[in-house]
Amino acid sequence: MKKNKIKIGIVGGTGYTGVELLRLLARHPNAELTCITSRGEAGQPVSDMFPSLRGYVDLAFTDPAQADLKACDVVFFATPNGIAMQQTRALLDAGVRVIDLAADFRIKDVAVWEKWYGMTHACPEIIAEAVYGLPEINRAEIALAQLVANPGCYPTAVQLGFLPLLQAGVVDEANLIADAKSGVSGAGRKAETHILFAEAGDNFKAYGVAGHRHLPEISQGLGLMSGKAVGLTFVPHLTPLIRGIHATLYARLTKETDVQKLFEQHYQAERFVDVLPSGSHPETRSVRGSNQCRIAIHRPQGGDMVVVLSVIDNLVKGAAGQAVQNMNIMFGFEETTGLELVPLLP
Amino acid sequence: MKKNKIKIGIVGGTGYTGVELLRLLARHPNAELTCITSRGEAGQPVSDMFPSLRGYVDLAFTDPAQADLKACDVVFFATPNGIAMQQTRALLDAGVRVIDLAADFRIKDVAVWEKWYGMTHACPEIIAEAVYGLPEINRAEIALAQLVANPGCYPTAVQLGFLPLLQAGVVDEANLIADAKSGVSGAGRKAETHILFAEAGDNFKAYGVAGHRHLPEISQGLGLMSGKAVGLTFVPHLTPLIRGIHATLYARLTKETDVQKLFEQHYQAERFVDVLPSGSHPETRSVRGSNQCRIAIHRPQGGDMVVVLSVIDNLVKGAAGQAVQNMNIMFGFEETTGLELVPLLP
Amino acid sequence: MKKNKIKIGIVGGTGYTGVELLRLLARHPNAELTCITSRGEAGQPVSDMFPSLRGYVDLAFTDPAQADLKACDVVFFATPNGIAMQQTRALLDAGVRVIDLAADFRIKDVAVWEKWYGMTHACPEIIAEAVYGLPEINRAEIALAQLVANPGCYPTAVQLGFLPLLQAGVVDEANLIADAKSGVSGAGRKAETHILFAEAGDNFKAYGVAGHRHLPEISQGLGLMSGKAVGLTFVPHLTPLIRGIHATLYARLTKETDVQKLFEQHYQAERFVDVLPSGSHPETRSVRGSNQCRIAIHRPQGGDMVVVLSVIDNLVKGAAGQAVQNMNIMFGFEETTGLELVPLLP
Amino acid sequence: MKKNKIKIGIVGGTGYTGVELLRLLARHPNAELTCITSRGEAGQPVSDMFPSLRGYVDLAFTDPAQADLKACDVVFFATPNGIAMQQTRALLDAGVRVIDLAADFRIKDVAVWEKWYGMTHACPEIIAEAVYGLPEINRAEIALAQLVANPGCYPTAVQLGFLPLLQAGVVDEANLIADAKSGVSGAGRKAETHILFAEAGDNFKAYGVAGHRHLPEISQGLGLMSGKAVGLTFVPHLTPLIRGIHATLYARLTKETDVQKLFEQHYQAERFVDVLPSGSHPETRSVRGSNQCRIAIHRPQGGDMVVVLSVIDNLVKGAAGQAVQNMNIMFGFEETTGLELVPLLP
Fold first, then answer.
1. If DSSP codes are grouped into helix, strand and coil, which group holds residue B298?
2. Do A294 and A178 fall into the same domain?
């Protein structure tokens, strides 16, 4: 029987994905916020740390040791990598469904995961049953999942941009390029020097060119779409905006195709993927605060190079919003519930 | 009989207050967007100009000459100063209620208005019947008003910050100072050099120190609260943020008072004014995208100088949000309808 | 005989390249600022418009009709495209050397120029004698030039990044990609809506994907380096910073090469091109206010895709600084004179 | 005998005032950078941490324990508060002159200092001999000083703005207000959450209203100018720019005065204080990267309230530039040496 209200637990509520979950769930008609944990801030009202939530969230942070997460219907992990994998088994055993916003369950090949994340996986046996939570690809599996691995922000923007091309098999999948730009909130709410205002402001740089953790996640996803291994060059950049990812994707067309039509048809039933008219240039602010992905497709000078521009809000469609979308699917709510958010512009 | 849905017209939909009205009204359960005018953009879908509205607003701009505004229940003017005064008489005569987001009806003394706005008023006889749309002061009159003069952004932040002190008569009203800082969207969506990104970015300056148009509006309001003319020094500044006003207010206490308690009691029933705990420093982002005003009160070193910190989003509580709040009051809807917006942070 | 001081004229001193020329020339020991023209601002002291120059520049703007530019040794055009071509012939005939910071003389094929710039060229016969002012390629010709076509900002960053690879013939020149990001000052000091702070701030987008005017300029340059026509996909983006260009360049290696060594050797004698150690990620702020180009080279996962990261300050090495560098070469001054500028960080 | 080159040591070269000292001293004709210490970065080339210095600074950081600071002519402390006081005695005894950019020697009353800085002073006996390094007030004493206490950033902007009024005795010194706004670099290069880009960006707030450490420093200075204790309300704010302080000062005129003329006469001989024409609004960017203070004076509506607008670059005139200015005075160099910096605009 479908419940009208489900009990929600959030582990790690002091980061940006945590506060964004709170923003969305506070107004979700089927969500009952039950528990938010934080080791460091136990006892403190959440709205003392985030005054934006005053009047909307009355909870205080709970010490993880005291939190009765097993009484929840679903638990979100908005924690650093490596935390969810330590607690997920017990929750699943207790019948609690889990959505991990970190990377613990995204990579199917545990050796690859361990190499990129630099730690031993605590529960490799669960990885197989985790469903990768990109609804535009895995909607049916998500509905049945006990454990959802919520995609990374870059992977969401890049995969949605390449998906129609790879599924249609019309591009050279061995030579894909994703030149991606992220706002600074993507680095999290961590006290680190390189993301200070006076460091990241009025500044632009690439990072992780030698190898970024989202590379294997994206490659795995693109490979599944394509039906064979892909060759991908992925270059992330840090750009002085707070929210937003802009992925500029390059693929060589191997078969003459009306790419505009291909994308429009592929996404026509998707509420959260918006294919813009031919010739458009999506702006990150056109999705600010919303769960939307907007995509435009170009063929410069009419050649065989396809350039896809894909934008999302890294904290919404790239994290908390997609997690709520997954929750809606898992619990049989209308997929857009709580996510009818008009972007904030300007 | 209270209507469930009212027909809405917006004159001037291409500026920031216009697009903000659209953002709010698109999700308002009692609003039926009927008509949005623009001379320059007639025929163009609104969402072509503002892709953030794709999926939420289907209307195209209408030429003002063709617009059947008289069929609306309420018309919002989101126009430059001097436009509303030319069309309001005819709309009122047709039984349409009007909310002017510009300054045409804010100043009761027409000579003062004409001096500061540099034009002759087109319908001075209507000014007296216009109600100044600050609900926290004029709620009852707004409910009955045919014509509401929606307050300016600075005037909203400054008046809400001084109100409890002046009504209680506990400060020297002859020596008030309002040092106010505004985000750049407050200057409107106009092609002017001084508000370019490369001019206003990474830059801070005062402006209009010799005299800003919001000065007479604020002085009029403070005088009404105080029961006598006030002396006010008002210094506005341009700060490199998109949305937000921060007013830092200085008043000398003339009667020993628990100012924290005074403010808490004054605003305890107000949904959109939030008095923070003693010692707080409200941030503009804590109200970003919302209709909230947050206020903190200080007495540095325990002296008799009261420092009030008051923040709003200039486009919401300082413009479109307050206009919707007024609409709700005028048409008997719950005052918070369509305005339960959790601020976007970060 | 080499002059110790040369007389300088600047046509169009009210834009960003104009004020940047003034910043640099005001402290140049061999420059005597003689004349700065502006139609709109004639008679106004330059430092009234740009208070940053108070104490350094005493000139007032001169009406172009009154300006005695023929008395100058060199005239810089810091004007929109299409102005320099109307005045250059007369200046050259009078023995004045000309440096055009706009695009009038950059493209050798006049038909290509007329197509991309949408106007008829006023003096196509001069184009052949103009020297393309990229000193790292054309130093000797610049020294003898009467007319220098100062390169565009994107073309400078992109060409310096591809140069060693193309000259060495080690990459597939038919499939080059330049994904470039520019600060907003690159759009000039024009009253246009899309570059307002509240539009371009906290926002990121691509533009001109279908075709940008810098594409033929870059293609021409890369073709000369390569010895044959190149295939280039060029995607520019607008990023919320004031100054700075970051070009991310992709080329497929066709011959195994130590690319780090190739770049270091190529640029070892160049004062204004700095090849960073292997593994680096140059930041735009590391060149802010300076004439430096900093470059890093990567081969992600050791594959055959070479990723070059190239940063410049678009107003210095991408415009005014390079123009002064050209002037130094043309007049026999030490090439670094007036350009020993330590970048402003943070 | 005046040396042509002096040996410079810098203690604490990894913060913003440290790198700014390096920027300025790298091009100072009389400075020989000899030693830069850092405990954490010993052995690392300075330009690895700050690539902006590549080509200008060749030194590596030295471990403080190994640094031969006594061989220097002058040592700058660009350290947190409480460090300089532990090493200054030994340096002075060795004949080394010291300029402390932190607060250790700014407050003459040691009890006041200990209260505000929360530690016991390590060498209270030296405080009396320290000269407060505001050249516009103490030039003669600075020339002879062995130990200079370089002023704080807010204190510099506020004191220069009030100085002519207080020395002339024309305002009510018991009711002064300083509403000051600072860029985020003023908080230092520290890994702290509240100054992250995603926290401080697109945000504005007051802080330290109850009491900021610069209050006693400013009060002490204003009292000396005024000849009696002053009453000051000081409210600092954090604004989303990297560099720059804007102080808006309020004082009630007690004696009718031509304040514009007063300021112009007071500062006519000062190279680094620029009084703007009547009616001006100085911008922080008009001093970006320079040692300039620009001031404008207003009397809104011709009343007796004087509003002074004072802007500086907090890292230059508010820290490293003023320190170099002091060094120039101490060693008999032209006061402007190395400080003829045209501000970077835009």
1. strand
2. yes
